[in-house]
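TL;DR need structure tokens for one chain.
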Amino acid sequence: MPSPFRSLPFKALLAVVVTAICVGIGVVRATPPKHAPADPLATRLAAVDTTALTVRRAAFCSALPEATVTAALGGRITGRASWHPGQTVQLSTKVKDVADEYGCSWTSSTGGTARAWVFEPPVTADRAARLAAAKPTGCTSLTGTPAPAYGAPTSALACGDSTLLRGLFGDAWLSCELSGTDLDLVGRWCLAVARAAA
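>> reply
TL;DR here they are.
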């Protein structure tokens, strides 16, 4: 009497089972492990040549993910505003004026502020040099460790309890500001702003 283990149906079943096991092992090995969400501010400003970036002179705020703003502020967003050229806005606590820029600002539950804006009119290299040399009221040039380039020309300022980076990207004058004096964090925030505006 022939053995049931040598029959054709058994061999076919065995082949199917072995194939299923091999495929299952391959799927398990090929499935990448779940990772924590990527840090939206992972890239340092010094790691990128911002002089090669070109920024649009247009609205860009919606391109900044909320996770990026929250990471920069270090707390939950509790307020936000945006503006465009021709709109009357409160540009600072003491200045209300008609904007000639596209911009946005956020405040956090911890009291921090993040802002970014780009001039709507094109800026020449000569005008950019003058803008980089100018210091808004209440701001001083950062001393000590120089800030990485933020466009060309560029300037880095301490403005009260905030840090402001500005620079020329193509023909667009881009500025970004963040509460605090952690220049590395400010650089990461400003790089995210430049990429959103590019």
